[in-house]
Design a protein that fits this description.
The protein is of the alpha+beta class and 121 residues long. The chain contains 1 helix and 7 strands. The longest helix is centred in the first third of the chain and has 21 residues, at 2-22.
């Protein structure tokens, strides 16, 4: 029995190292601008809600420039850090749901996204 316990204790450092190597820490979510799909005007007061497998309750509201930052620094084990969805809501506009693969050709840089909301007519 003692020899089995010793073997398990010998493996403990390798297990800890393996878990450390399989984990990550990074930002989950996105930031960018929300505009009216027809006019291109920046939209103030759009709620951007971040949905992830492990975190809830993170949201942001666009400012007068239409800018939002709905992201959070998280620690992840075994990947999955980038899995998320964003839901954009504003009265008078259709709700839009996007995931981490959402990108448009007219981005400022590779991290900034532009979201175009369509008005309800």
């Amino acid at each position: 029995m003692k020899s089995a316990l010793r073997r398990c204790l010998k493996l403990l450092p390798q297990l800890i190292i393996a878990l450390f190597l399989c984990s990550c820490e990074g930002f989950v979510g996105d930031y960018g601008y929300v505009v009216d799909a027809d006019s291109g005007n920046k939209l103030n007061g759009v709620k951007a809600e971040l949905i992830t497998p492990n975190i809830s309750g993170i949201s942001a509201t666009t400012d007068s420039l239409g800018f939002f930052n709905a992201s959070i620094l998280v620690g992840c084990v075994f990947g999955g850090c980038d899995e998320h969805e964003l839901i954009f809501r504003k009265s008078g506009y259709k709700t839009l749901k996007i995931d981490q693969r959402y990108r448009l050709n007219d981005t400022i840089d590779s991290d900034t996204i532009f979201v175009k909301l369509k008005s309800i007519k």
